[in-house]
Amino acid sequence: MAPELTDQLLSNELTARILVVDDEPRLLDSLAALLRDSGYQVTEAHGGKRACELADSQSFDLALLDLRMPDVDGFDVMAHLADVQPDCGAIVVSGESSFSAVSRALRRGALDYIRKPFDPEELLATVASVTNKQSLLKAHEHIQLRLEKSEALHRYIVNSSPDIVFMLDDDGHFCFVNSKVESLLGYPPSELCGHHFRHILDDRDVTRGMYALNGPNITADNPRTLEVRLKTRGSRRATRHFEITAFPIDPQTWPYSHATQGGGNGQTARYYGTARDVTERKEAEAFINFQAYHDLLTRLPNRALFKDRLELAITHARRSDQKLAVMFLDLDRFKVVNDTLGHAMGDRLLQAVTHRLEKCLRKGDTLSRFGGDEFTLLLPSIHSHEDARQIAKKLINALRAPFQLGDHEVFVGVSIGISIYPEAGDSMDHLIQNADIAMYHVKARGKDGYRFYSESMSIDSANRLNLERDLRLALERDELRVFYQPQVCSTTNRIVGLEALVRWQHPERGLLYPRDFLPLAEETRLIGQLSERVLDQACQDVGLWIRSGHSDLRLAVNLSPVQVEHPKFVDTLMQRVRAHRFPAQNLEIEITENVIMNDLEQISQKLRELAALGVRIAIDDFGTGYSSLNYLHRLPIHTLKVDQSFVKAIRSGDDGACIVNAIVAMAHGLKLEIVAEGVETDEQLEYLRKLGCHQVQGFYYGPARPAEHISRTLAFPTAQAASI
Length: 724
Hints:
The protein is α/β, with parallel strands linked by helices. The protein folds into four domains: 3-152, Response regulator (Rossmann fold, 3-Layer(aba) Sandwich), CATH 3.40.50; 164-283, Beta-Lactamase, CATH 3.30.450.20; 292-453, Reverse transcriptase/Diguanylate cyclase domain (Alpha-Beta Plaits), CATH 3.30.70; 475-723, EAL domain (TIM Barrel). Helices cover 44% and strands 22% of the residues. The strands form five sheets. It has an eight-stranded mixed β-barrel with strand order 18-19-21-22-23-24-25-26, surrounded by five helices. Strands 2-1-3-4-5 form a five-stranded parallel β-sheet, with helices on both faces. Strands 7-6-10-9-8 form a five-stranded antiparallel β-sheet, sandwiched between helices. Strand 19 and strand 20 form a beta hairpin. It is flat, with a radius of gyration of 37 Å. This is EAL domain-containing protein.
């Protein structure tokens, strides 16, 4: 940017004429003084009516106005400014923070919205940004006007043409070419004049170009038109596509005999023409054709192309009496990455996954992105199930290594369902559907694996519908049970807390564990009712133990994302706690990192409200998410629960234990309590004790037990927790 333009922008910004509007004199004077001290020309208007009067008589660059004013409100002032001074910008400075007010202000043309009470530095920065942007726009308009005048005075038709304009002699040598050739192809006109036009023709089009120029019947009424590829100078850029139109020149009517631009001789010109760059059009045509059959993110075949190839493969397999396999792949934990790190990182992950998967394929296999984080794979001409099994294992192993996304190291797995032609179906739709069903059975059994489709899986799908019906009846019949797993002090073996865990006493299938029905409860939105039942029972049981002499006993409950994300989550939770006369300071709610990061602002506000009421906050399965750890010191978090997968890594000499070391050290540094889950051995317990992890839970102290068992244990305070 030229120095004089920079100086002009700076001068415009500091001398901007600003109208300040408010119905509170103290705020009006304070805001006006702040702006004057920063070098702005400020006019004050007490109320909206006065602001409209001033707008009729004076010119302003910017208006800072309140929304709530008794006579004429801020919205009306903005509307008036838009009528009489459309170039005057507006910044709202208001205590009104409702979404509707902010949205309405922005729709009316407000350039920014500053909430009262405002931070002076933030306000000045906002004003400076807006005025600077307005100055840039005005300077841009001024420069545009000057350019248009200059072009009107100095424009030369040929050199302002969007196309290359050229002239050729009888032999096809350039005797004139306009300057557009340099911007499009990189050749200075002087370099081309005197050279044959085939000098810039792509080798694949030389013959066609020569024939077109020498062809018969070229007249002014019947010019020669053709599409050719032209080379760029020095191959700096890719070959580009041009549509060339060439006309003959009648020597009798062409009086020009002087030297032309670039040094050519106009007297020898026999052809003139234009070359229009159609590269974008050709690329668009190729892109549309590619888009119809490929996924643009991963460049893989899409669903349509995959189905076409599968249909052909089935036809070939039927004729040759061969087998083929269809795999349905679904990434594990992809949604966590996508939700916590953002869609851009999610897209990068999909591309990286595609790159690894493609390395596992044989020639002739088709990998397709079916949608979202789902892929399908066609394996034609396999000999047995073992061929498909080996490919599946290669795919799973390929994705087990971590992916580096910027500063984040993330892990994903893959669940693979496999259907074999013709046993699992003899049509395209059946093979895809059955592979999908097999994949969901992998998900239900812990993910990160593969399964072949069998007819029993379809029966399982029907059973799933029955299970959903039974779960609804279970809520009506009160078949849910609450078990408690002790959280124990690792140094004293004293029970310091109890985690409430749900069980389902099914009338036919017996006692069911959370893994058997919680995923279904979440999918069918029954998780809210289920969690409320658990909380009610747990508050009743643990509240009784607290009042019976265990005043420090802590109740830990897991809450589903559906509950936490509900607008009335805090009120609903506290109503239930108070209804059972349960002391809030003895309650600890457990949520995962991903729940927080799904909507950091809203969830943070809810957690602060709960912490203010005495409720403790614990992060469950800590370390398995991919969110930034920055929230730990900004939110009212009291406890980190180390996921049992890290505790299992504690072995003599096992490097995996370093993750536990890091989490415990970080918790100590942030002055957070820490609970290690899944402790099963003396070795693990001793390791955690030495690290300073003083609270543990797991099968070392026994599985979760019903309330009657816990009551007997708490009745003997001298009993060792290891005997639970």
